[in-house]
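S2.1 Query sequence (ATP-dependent helicase)
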Amino acid sequence: MRTATTDTYRTSLRITKTASEKMRGFGISERSFFIADQAFTVFIERYPSGPDGSLSVALIFGRGETDRLAENGLDQLTVLHCVFKNHQLLVTNVTLRKAYQALGTNWQRKESIIFTDSRDPAPVAFINMINRMTPAKERSDYVKKRISSWEGYLKIQEQGMDIPDIKTAYSSLAFSHDFSRITLTGCRLKDEEWKTLRNLSVRLTGIDGDVGTVIKTKNRTVEVELNSYIIKQLREKGHALSKKEVVFSNFAALSQIRRLRQGFTNLEKGLAVNPQLDRLLFEEKPEVAPLKELEKLTYQNRLNEFQQQAVSGAMAAEDLYVIQGPPGTGKTTVISEICLQNAKKGLRTLVASQSNLAVDNALGRLLANKDIRILRVGRTESIEEEGKKFIEENVGQYWKDNTLKEISAQYEARTKRQAELTEELETTERMYAELQPVFEDLKNAVANKKEALEKQKEIELALSKERHKFQAFTLQKEQALQEQRDSEQKLETLASSIKTDQAIVESDRNLDWFREEQNRVEKVLQQLEHARQLEQLEKQLADKKQELAAVSDKRNQLTGLIDAKKKALEELEDIKKVDGLIRLMSEQKIEETTAIAYSFGKLEMLRNKMLERTNLEKSNASLMAAIAYIEKLLAPTGVALETVREKALAQGGSFTLAEVDQFLDKLRAFLKSSPSIEPAALGKALAGLYKRQNELWRRGAELKTHDVYIEGSKRAFQELKKVISGELVKQQQHYAELDGKWLEELEKMQQDLNVLERQAKPLPIDFAVPADIEDAIRMRNAELAALERDKASFEQAEERLENRQKERVQETEALSAIQVHLGEINTVLAQVQERMAGFENEREAVEKIIASEPEAEYERTAKKLASLSFDMESLKQEQKNLPLMQTIQKKWLELLKDANDHDLDEIRKLYIKHANVIGTTCVASARKDFIDNYPVFDVVIIDEVSKATPPELLLPMLKGKKIILVGDHHQLPPLLGNDTLEETLEEMIKDNSGFEEKRELEKLLEESLFERLYKNLPETNKTMLAIQYRMHENIMETISPFYQFDNDQLQCGLSDSDKERDHFLESGSVKRSNHLMWFDLPNEPAYFEERMNGGKSLYNPAELQEISRLLVELNDAAGEAKRAGRIDVDELKTVGVISFYGEQVKRLQRMIDQELRLPHLTIRTGTVDRFQGSEMEIILLSMVRNNQNRHGDIGFANDYRRLNVALSRAKQLLVLIGSSEMFTKRAKKEDTKRMYQHVLETVEKKNGLKVLQKG
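Output structure tokens follow.
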């Protein structure tokens, strides 16, 4: 139900004539709606909008409000059916509803309304509130549509439910070895009744309650699996029953189905405590409320990081939280912690599960906590022994016994305490007095040290300043000394340089001498340069004259070429054939341009057309002759030639000349070889001739006459000559242009020659030209360069000498200033060193005080003194309160010891009233007494969700404001009866080939409710418990891939797997280091599976034999371990022997019962599906499937969830018995092969593979 607002709405109410008449008929006064401005508490239910879009609602008045309206009590609820018309609330009809019908559903809204008889419009806020409501029918239809997908579970369970009770006598009753089953023989039943017994409950006359369930009928015997709570009673009375009569009934199953269907109905009606439950269950991505802020939690249990995350997330969630718990990850610990946290917050929690055992396991960890008041609800006989203390009739006695025991212990302890108190108080006071002066001395020492620390800081600060000053002046001194050394070295360098420069300046050479020498050398150089140029000019003159002659020769050649082109043009006019043109082009080196190529191509085309015309005419003549001949042969036969011709022409065809000639050749050969030819063959030949003649005519029609092609060839030839003539003219023009360019070049060269002749003047007569002018020039240039260098050196020496003499005077003055500054620095450094020495002496004295370290002793003494003071006060208070506490507890003891049945009943009522953790099964939560007593829970926790069907899960979910689901979708879906869901489906389809809901039921296997929620909920509303504590890490490695795509990888929480999961067994096959093994059977006929006679299940005799041998070996190893002291003498090793197939399990149990004696082992057998939720120290897994059938497969073992369950039951040792080849190579699905290959590879890596030899 929607939460009502705190406001009261005031709205006008108008009533139609029809509604008014109805009210009068029911005895309801219209005026009663408007009396004294009194508000009505009304439940509003919105209807779908009308065809005109009008807003439609129902106003439902409860019993109390209806009494206000009606003059006489109606014992029913009044319903006003209304619409909003012109913004006014108009009553169109009035009906009555049964008083027991639900009020306050999630589709309704409870509001307070004052009605007026005015014509004012309804308040906008009131209309908007109704507009925001979802129409009840739409919401109900939404639930009904989606919940239909869960109908499949109920359809499975309803199979055969219409069977009436069957009563019959029996002759004898026999127990199984472990008293878990009985076999009834001598039942007198009809044939059709024998077929319906399976899964019916069984009642024996003389035994209270149902004794169990039929699991098998064979050879006129009935095998019954007993309820655990009935075994003791049946063992005592079973063989002494006065009347041997049995009743087979499905009443219990029918009751359960009714409860499940009622859950559907309640959800459809909106009767869930959480109004959003339907959305949370059915939306693809449920919209959960944001997590609330939490204070940091204090955990009662030791939790790992993932468990803490799960608990904190579950506490912070407002509506839904999902916890995925892989095998052995501590789901029960997390559930108990959530219950404790809820109890601390004053919340009531429902813990539910599919089975009683799971409920009691979940509650088991809560027993020792005082904040928890557990109440276990359900059939007493179904509840485990540990849980029976908390059923309603036992909780009073349980509380009394526990409280009496605790108070008795406290009372006895306080009686002894009186004498001890006085002595303890005197001792404590004496120790306090002795410790007080020691504390004062330590206190002063700490204060002195504190002052010394402050003084030390001051000294360190002053020392630091002086050190910085000392370092600064030391640095200045080093810099001054370096400057002094640099200055002295510089003065030495200057003196040496001045001496060198003076020697240069005072030599015989001066500036005038250098100028005269330079003039002389430069004059000689000019004459040498002129002599060198004369040689070069004469060479250039000779070269230039030679170039003039070459250019003149080229011009003469060009003149010849130009004349040749003239002659070629004249010759071109007389050429009449294409070959002549080709020859001319070759001689004149004319390249084939695009225009020339086009003209040649055109001539070639015309020539080909003429040739084609000739060939066509020739072939046509041959065809006409053949046609005439054939027509002549056919004339006497009466064949209609025109018809043959028309059909042939209608067919058409495309033929080359070669194909036509080939056809004619074949026809001639045919005619010659056959003296007598059938008319049909001749007609066919004639048709072929007609078709080919028609094709030749078609192609001939596309060609022109010979004259046209000849005329075209002439025109094309003339165009070609014109193009070639143009190319010759272009060549002629090109040569003329070249001649003009060379003429210009010749004139320019003549001008250059004239200039060279003018430049070649003769040398003076008196100049002697050396033999090697170049060498002479190099020598004079070198001499001139040397003079330049010497002159520059002289000038530089003069300038340097003047500058360095000035610099020496300045440097001498600077050196004197540096020496004065050094003296000042030394004086300051001496003063600083003196002050630093004083501070060092002070610091040494302070450090002696600081080194004393009195704080730790002072702290210890202060704590001891405070502890003694607290002890004194506590002892005084205890001494004062002891008589009062003893009196109170004595009174409690008397009351508890003397408590009568009435007192216990009152205690029981109080306990039940304040119980904060209620435990029950999912189905039991729908019992009427449970619904009446516990309609609402703050939190509903459902454990082992994967083992329950959605209809079962829905029942406790309807009760919770917040739902917490705990499960693992990587484990198996629920069992239905004794079979897996797959087996049940297979049996149903086999029994009824027309079963139409097969696909609908198969969908139930694909994705569970838990899996969908876990995948689609936001990360804030789910957690995976990723640390497991059950298995040895080697075993865990086999199941890790099943969780690799979840949020976190599965981890092992055992600090030392080998130590914590040591099985202590040593045998020929199994070593202590082995924790994961595979006994590998050959894929050979001797080891193949077999099918039970007339049944669907399989078994494997070879595996039975190997398991028998292995169990004997393990039993002997356990006995040896006891003798060696590795395990206790009384300890029995727990061994689970499991299989994928029920028939194999039955034969295993029979073998263990009848053939083996295993005193050191506790053995439990079962299918993998039945073992889900259980754990044993050792697990032997019989894999059964082994064949070489090409179309075969591994059946139920394909399901990774089943393999996950099988591999994760063992704590210390897991042994697989089966053919690795069958599972890793012969399985049909690649994913399945990879799954078993991983297991095999892990076994091999852990040195656990044992390959069994053939025979």
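The first strand starts at residue 8 and ends at 15. DSSP finds 36 helices and 30 strands in the chain.
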